[in-house]
Amino acid sequence: MSRRHAVTILYALHDAPLHVDTEDGSQLSAAAVLIAPHVARSLDARDAGVLSFNLDQLSYEYHALMRMLGDRAMMAIDASHFRALRRELSAFCDGVLDCGMAYRLFNQFVRAIVEYRPPNLLVDMRVLHVANRVMMELPLTHTIEELADNVGISADRLRHLFAEQLGVSLKSYMLWAKMRRAALLFPTRRSLTEIAHSVGFADSAHLTRTFKSYFGLTPSFLADPTRVEVRGC
Fold first, then answer.
1. SS3 of 27, please?
2. From CA 117, how far away is CA 134, in angstroms rounded?
3. Is 49 a residue whose pLDDT tops 80?
4. Disulfide-capable partner of 157 in 7, 82, 119, 153 (CB 3.0 to 4.6 Å)?
5. What CA–CA distance (Å, rounded) separates 43 from 46?
6. Which pLDDT tens digit goes with each residue over 52-102?
């Protein structure tokens, strides 16, 4: 079982369906699946191959897809709407697309979901500023008090605003940022201990446990270039 702070879209690259089981016993088999954040699940995609999009709270699409989900932990998506994008999706999986083209494909993919409706959003700029600082300044880290002082409000007020507007606690978001950065560092020649320290963990064992709980993968899997290619945009 793994769980993430992101909204996840899973898409089968071949004709066989994906099989998703959640911690509460729910099951779903479909060619494309939308999964809410914080939902513990396991995935069987051995016959299908899978493309996984993870959208965090800083993305506009995260909030639109959350409205689609409502109170549901996951839902099937009609994959027929993605057929027009198959050539681009294949190129993406082959690593042919550059970052700009990949981002454009991602936007086309999300908007091909038939139930997708762009919402009107009003987000406090102080929250966006803090979230961007957390993501962009790693391996530098800040206390919540320091982040709050930077935008002129109390730590308690920042905690409340962040959770209210982005749907996740600031502390949890800071951990998610570390996981994203670690994923980009695993394929480098750095030792696991060096990577752990560079994203704010005391040791490699803590990093490994936390990463596996998020993605269901070990750092050694992502560090193997014969199995995985990791790119950062």
1. strand
2. 29
3. no
4. 153
5. 9
6. 888 888 888 988 899 899 999 999 999 888 888 988 888 888 888 888 888
Residue with tokens 């704010």: 200
- Record the tokens describing residue 202, joined without a space: 């005391």
Q: Residue 103 corresponds to which tokens in the numbers above?
A: 């981002």
Q: Is the pLDDT of residue 227 over 80?
A: no
Inter-residue contact 133 to 143 (CB < 8 Å): no
Instruction: Domain 125-222: give its CATH code.
Output: 1.10.10.60
- Nearest Cα neighbor of 115 from 65, 160, 169 is 65
The answer to whether 30 and 79 are in contact (CB under 8 A) is yes
Cα separation of 53 and 109, whole Å? Answer: 10
Taking the C-alpha atoms of residue 154 and residue 205, their distance in angstroms, rounded to an integer, is 34
For the chain, the domains span 7-111, 125-222
Cβ(38)–Cβ(5) under 8 Å?
yes
- What pLDDT is stored for residue 76 in this prediction? 94
Contacts (Cβ under 8 Å, ≥6 apart) of 138: 177, 178, 181, 198, 199, 200
> What is the CB neighbour count within 10 angstroms for residue 105?
16
Task: Report the alpha-carbon distance of residue 53 to residue 10 in Å, rounded.
Answer: 7
